[in-house]
Write a structure and sequence with these properties.
Layout (H helix, E strand, L loop, with lengths): L7 H44 L7 H22 L15 H36 L12 H30 L3 H7 L5 H13 L1
Helix pairs in contact: 1-2, 1-4, 2-4, 3-4, 4-5
GO cellular component, one term: plasma membrane
Subcellular location: Cell inner membrane
Membrane topology: Multi-pass membrane protein
Length: 202
Amino acid sequence: MARTASTAPLVRTLDCLLGISTRISRAGVWACGALLFAAVAMIVIEIVLRAFGSSLHGAHELSGYVLAIVTSWGLAWALIEKAHIRIDVIYMRVGPRLRTVLDLIAILMMALFVVVLLSQVWELVAGTLKRGSTANTPLQTPLWIPQMLWMAGLVWFAFTVFVLAARTLLGALTGDRDAVARVWGNRSIEDEIAENDHSTRG
């Protein structure tokens, strides 16, 4: 199916959604960075206080929550930046058409993984809400709070995956292989070298 004017509105919509996802994911990464710095500061204070026989009573627990939340919210940005590990031994040795097929298979498998992941995560959070579970710690944190923040990051990751999947599928169906390569295609060694060189000079 060739790309026609009838698909242009859908292309613009998906590109707009991808742009929104990029901006929000970037902001999320910056927020996660600030959260990590706060967790590190809290741990340093905890170490100092323990040297004087005192404690914050919860630094270890809170830092664990931070790690989980930061991980889930960083997934979308890593996906957009193509930072996830992909095996490209075959990918880099085939033609553009087969690369498009491999890209499509990869993103659809990622979408399937996200559906399964979210179903399991929701069962966990729903069980926590139903039981009113709290952490077995001095803080007795209601576990639904960190779990919901963690799940929110995974939901945003899922949204990004589905937008990328839809854009990749549309590009594949319309024969727009350049768009597929741009939004989801694996980066070549030359691209990575150029990016590292640009970062070093910047």
